Amino acid sequence: MVMLALVVKASSRGPFLFRQNRIGKHGEEFALLKFRTMYCHSGNNSGPLVTRSGDSRVTPVGRWLRKWKLDELPQFVNVLKGDMSLVGYRPDMLKYMQTLTGQDRNILYFRPGITSPASLKFRNEEQELARVPPEEMEQFYISKLLPQKIGMDLDYAEHSTFVTDCRILRRTALSVLCRHKD
């Protein structure tokens, strides 16, 4: 992780870590940590909150980190702090979590995680978002992708066991180490 931090810092201006408030268990905000994969912008409006494949804000090193999911490694600090677990729904920003209605809001009873069934299924979410016109991307995420992800992860969370968590961790490791062809 130290080597990755040095590479991020040397490749573009700005901090090596990216912090973003996300919603966790019981709707509490926490600072999610990632290696920074985008250029730092001085303005407040540097683009949409979701990213798509080919986004010009992503640095060359950031593309590589995202491809191999190495930008997520600092989240082990979030796990040690108790904000996250290894397996659980992927925490999202308040703006998106506020769109959840009905039973989908039950996801907030669970601790978010680094990996989940939905994060495995939507591993290439940026490519899926690239198929949508830029002006419709955020609405597509809110109306189509987020409900699917929450539904999958809620079903998983309600029926999870130590063994199923181990299976998800194994599938995640295999997904990263034995990347399927893009």
Mean pLDDT across residues: 92
- Helical element count? 8
Strand % is 5-15%
Largest sheet, in brief, is: 2 strands, antiparallel
Shape summary: globular
Q: What series of H and E elements makes up the topology?
A: HEEHHEHEHHHH
- The order of strands across the largest sheet is 1-2
How many β strands by DSSP? 4
End-to-end separation: 26 Å
Structural class: alpha+beta
Helix proportion range: 40-55%
**What ranges have pLDDT less than 50 throughout 5 or more consecutive residues?**
none
Radius of gyration: 16 Å
Written description of the protein model:
It contains eight helices and four strands, in the order αββααβαβαααα. The chain has helices at residues 2-11, 60-67, 75-81, 94-97, 117-121, 125-130, 137-159, 162-177; strands spanning 17-23, 29-35, 85-87, 113-115. It has a two-stranded antiparallel sheet. Strands 3-4 form a two-stranded parallel sheet. Strand 1 (17-23) and strand 2 form a beta hairpin.
